[in-house]
């Protein structure tokens, strides 16, 4: 099927029969999925469920084994990130020897849509010294710089792979609040993977739950949880059931 001919081709992500097989086996299987615009998507699932693999496929850093996907109507071609997409990987790769100023300068050089004032504003808001070398920053400060780099590109889709993992509870709250504000005011679709389900409540309005490389549940939270079950509980209930069925 020609995905580009779909009428809804400008949606952030459309995946059809998407699969990725590594030498050890399938990391993602038969994934058909739509990420609607202007959602903050919780991408959740147990360790090894395929969350990072799905993000890698959306960025184009990984090639699908089966099926295909479009990102704003384009097929990721492995030629670098889509101009409308920012990706913050789990390891938050930044140049340790660069100062924050130099890091943002690199962002400006490599992104035609870069907004320097906005990126600086995000760093200043986090009280991170612009002259400090990245290697000397705390985990939380590095996350804020990485986030400024990702948002400074003014993306339409922001992919965040466990961005909160090395933050203290207060910093997690601040980063999530910043994210929600920026996403809502700038009209950014966010895909956020996390294991801390409770934190995603009130933040994410769309859920994609992976289990064993397959989509177990996907959709807007208010539709999936008509009885008002909180997102975390909803996801955990489905994960428990899937694990029990697997063990039976
Ligand atoms: N480069 C790779 N080579 C071989 N197998 C891989 C590779 N990357 C991931 N896998 C395997 O694919 C499966 C899915 O991994 P993935 O990292 O996508 O899961 P995840 O949901 O992000 O996990 P976690 O929550 O632990 O970060 C796992 O079984 C993993 O071991």
Features:
single chain; Rossmann fold; 2 domains; six-stranded mixed beta sheet; 8 helices; 9 strands; 35% helix; disordered N terminus; binds adenosine-5'-triphosphate
* SSE pattern, N- to C-terminal: EEEHEEHHHEHEHEEHH
Write the CATH homologous superfamily of the largest domain. Answer: P-loop containing nucleotide triphosphate hydrolases
Indicate the radius of gyration in whole angstroms.
Answer: 18 Å
Would you tell me which CATH topology of the largest domain applies?
Answer: Rossmann fold
Mean pLDDT: 89
The residue ranges in which pLDDT falls below 50 over 5 or more consecutive positions are 1-9
Classification by helices and strands: alpha/beta
Main beta sheet strand tally, sense and closure: 6 strands, mixed
Q: What small ligands are held by the chains?
A: adenosine-5'-triphosphate
Instruction: Tell how many strands the DSSP assignment holds.
Output: 9
Topology record:
Blueprint: E1 13-22, E2 25-35, E3 40-44, H1 51-59, E4 66-71, E5 85-88, H2 100-110, H3 116-125, H4 139-152, E6 157-161, H5 169-186, E7 189-193, H6 197-200, E8 206-211, E9 214-220, H7 221-224, H8 231-247
Bound molecules: adenosine-5'-triphosphate.
